[in-house]
Amino acid sequence: MNHNNLIPDQKLVQKYLSGDDYALDVLITRHRNRLFTYIVMVVKCHSLAEDILQDTFIKIIHSLKNGKYKDSGKFISWAVRIAHNLIIDHFRKEKHLKTISNDNCETDLFNCADFSDDSIETTLINNRVIYEVGEIMNLLPQDQQEIIKLRHYYGLSFKEIAEQTNVSINTALGRMRYALINMRKIVDDKKIELNLCS
After folding, report:
1. What is the rounded CA–CA span in Å between residue 19 and residue 175?
2. Residues 174 and 109 sit within 8 Å (Cβ to Cβ)
3. 136 with 183: CB under 8 angstroms?
4. What is the mean pLDDT of residues 98-124?
5. Nearest CA to 196 among 107, 89, 121?
6. Out of 2.60.40.150, 1.10.520.20, 1.10.10.10, 3.90.79.10, which CATH number does the structure's domain 111-198 have?
7. Cα–Cα nearest to 34, from 79, 93, 95, 98
8. Which pLDDT band holds residue 4 (cuts at 50, 70, 90)?
9. How far apart (Å, rounded) are the C-alpha atoms in residues 112 and 188?
10. Per residue in 133-142, pLDDT tens?
């Protein structure tokens, strides 16, 4: 067994920050496949996923050197968040680069809800709902919080969740079921109204 596989992520981060570049290689090798799987599932394009993965590692290196990683013991979650933000940035840029012609249409394409920005009111309401869902989720047991984050925030399949958390797929499914039941109960007990604006 490779001794490096036994070194926790946080220790590898500390070693890298102390000048041991090999520690970074171990971290990248350890998490490359998981990060790539997440990215390719979201972007649905192998070559784009490779590009974003490289950008993710560059951002990780810069962030580590600039002291932006705090000792939370959750290096992979932090790395996935960086990848997720880079994916969002990519699609925002793509959206800005796309141009649409109104010349060949009988109706005015731009007089359409799809092309209008959300109102400040809609944005505030939706942000409030997202915040409240997060607060409700924080009231759940740790294992149920984890499964919701992995499934709905990081987009992992139940098979991937089972592998990452070292449980069976049935256990992962059961935790999700209980998490949703408990969240509904909290919403009912606290009489919370969650209405997203569309």
Report:
1. 41
2. no
3. yes
4. 51
5. 121
6. 1.10.10.10
7. 79
8. low
9. 36
10. 777 888 889 8
